[in-house]
Amino acid sequence: MSSPTNSFSKYVVNFEDDTPSEIIDTQIDLIQSRGGTIYEMNDRNSYKGFNAYFPDDFVEILETHPKILMIEKS
Fold it and tell me: Which InterPro entries does the UniProt entry name for this protein (predicted)?
């Protein structure tokens, strides 16, 4: 019996401008706990978020957070 494997992809994750850094840090911790990697952080007025490599099935979990505006495969 083979075990299922999660495929990983690169994503851009954008947050609302007023999102506290603690919330972003929590999402980063969750991604890293699933084997993901953050490879670029942005905390500017025009773009608050990060670029990351994480399991495709984790997108559904992140999308439920009310402060996340967009998750896009890159």
Answer: S8pro/Inhibitor_I9_sf
2-50 per-position pLDDT tens digit:
445 579 999 999 999 899 989 999 999 999 999 999 999 887 666 799 9
Phi, then psi, of 8 in degrees rounded to 5: -110, 145
Closest of 21, 65, 67, 26 to residue 44, by C-alpha:
21
Question: Do the Cβ atoms of 11 and 59 come closer than 8 Å?
Answer: yes
Q: Sign of torsion, CA 69 8 57 27?
A: negative
Q: Return the C-alpha torsion angle 11, 17, 23, 25, nearest 10.
A: 50
Q: Which residues contact 48 (CB under 8 A, 6 or more apart)?
A: 14, 15, 16, 17, 19, 24, 42
CATH number of 8-73: 3.30.70.80
